[in-house]
Amino acid sequence: MKILILGGDGYLGWPTSMDLASKGHEVLAVDNYSRRTIAMQTSSEALIPTPNLEERARIFKEKTGETINISIGDLKDFRFIEDHIKTFQPDAVVHYAEQPSAPYSLKGYEEAHYTLKNNLEVTHNLIWAILKNKPECHIVKLGTMGEYGCPNIDIEEGWLEIEHKGRKDKFLFPRAAGSLYHTTKVLDTDLLWFYVRTYDLKVTDLMQGPVYGLSTTESDLDERLLPNFHYDDIFGTVVNRFLVQAVAGVPLTVYGKGGQVRGYLNLKDTLQCVDLAINNPAGERELKIYNQLTETFSVNQLAEKVRKAGELLGINVEVKSIPNPRREPEDHYYNPSNTGLLDLGLRPHFMTPEVLADMMEIVQRHKKNISINKIYPRVKWS
Ligand code: USQ
Fold first, then answer.
1. How confident is the prediction for the chain on average, in pLDDT?
2. pLDDT value of residue 284
3. What pLDDT sits at residue 227?
4. If you measure from the C-alpha of residue 210 to the centroid of ligand 1, how many angstroms do you get, rounded to a whole number?
5. What is the residue with the minimal CA distance to atom 28 of ligand 1?
6. What backbone torsions phi and psi does residue 276 show, to the nearest 5 degrees?
7. CB atoms < 10 A from the CB of 162, how many?
């Protein structure tokens, strides 16, 4: 297939580009380096410096013989995205091109405005570029489990059947996001759903939990092919942060009571899920929604897992609760359904102490790059 990856330089976009190119697809990866720019502006640079996209594609070609085509530009410019859809004529688009950090979206007015504008305009431009130039193209959109919040009922996969006063109907599962970033994802879903039911767009929305990991088949070929690995409070997700804190000898920063439960998945499983979504496209007027997670843990359980992984390497890991910079439930019910992708054939890589210890070994090799200043939260929710 011809596959366009939007946000091809990102933590998920780059490994996805390599994975799909290795499977024989014709891949075009697009990015405007927004994450790299924000990382510099906020002193949140990744642990391991990564070459730019052109250079990464060159190294990837050298190692595998496969090609990843690159284009650098801003998808907020409608003509830029339209040109790519017109000339490349993709069968599928994987849309990661969003400002993905919840803390950044709450930093101040400028950051909130940028997140809102970027995420919604890019999604809307993509929709129109597809409708006008390749309406049968399947959009695989990265959503987030955070759209649902933490409801006191089981979380279904995207939809909920409701019986009200003797009548039944099916609706999008209620959304109640915990940050402005997560709210932009809710708005994306609504936009896509409108265009699906009104213009026959084909969309799969992947509701993903926090991802952890570094290793993929392709990134294992050369350290320069590793994804951007963040441990700062802006872009670092909790598991990746804890592993760096453990190596740095900083007590793990459990926010508040640590009873916050989320659905996690290994980076390798993100790649499987995207592949499964591409190979099982939504039909016309169908918005397919999958909950993309493989296991659920509280923050305290994660900290314990990292402590055990540290033991395997002879590292003594301390855990210390700090005041929660976020406004979120710290002790709550959480039971998301996730059978859709498993039924399609997803084979999860679970979070064992060995898996975490392998990651810690990579982090140890780059220990000199760790800056303690980037670890503690710099953004408060209110
Ligand atoms: N947390 C801590 N200590 C830390 C960092 C985080 O206790 O040092 C807690 C947070 O308070 C939260 C949980 O860990 O309760 C997860 O936080 P996170 O920073 O790993 O995840 P989040 O901000 O929700 O966002 C990340 C990605 C985002 C994606 C989302 C999936 O940055 O792009 O959409 O995970 S989900 O969380 O399911 O919405």
1. 97
2. 79
3. 97
4. 6
5. 100
6. -65, -40
7. 11
Q: Which of 107, 134, 185, 202 is catalytic?
A: 185
Which ligand 1 atom is nearest residue 375's CA?
Answer: 8
Strand partners, 94: 5, 140
Residue type present at position 313: L
Sorted by where each begins, the domain ranges of the chain are 2-374
185: annotated active-site residue: yes
pLDDT of residue 283: 84
Say how many C-beta atoms besides its own lie within 10 A of residue 168's C-beta: 8
d(CA 224, CA 21): 17
Closest by CA position to 287, among listed 199, 211, 347, 184: 199
Tokens matching residue 333: 């019910």
Overall pTM surpassing 0.85 (yes/no)? yes
Please give the structure tokens belonging to residue 239. Answer: 């598991």
* 208-228 burial code (b ≥16 CB/10 A, e <16): bbbbbbbbbebbebeebbbbb
Positions of the chain with pLDDT lower than 70, given as ranges: none
Fold classification of 2-374 is Rossmann fold (3.40.50)
pLDDT at 92: 98
Q: How far is residue 226 from each of residues 27, 60, 140, 218, measured CA to CA in Å?
A: 18, 11, 23, 8
182/109 Cα distance (integer angstroms): 16
For residue 260, the ligand 1 atom closest to its alpha carbon is 15
DSSP code per residue over 33-76: -HHHHHHHHTT---SS----HHHHHHHHHHHHS--EEEEE--TT
CA 267, distance to chain mean position in Å, is 9
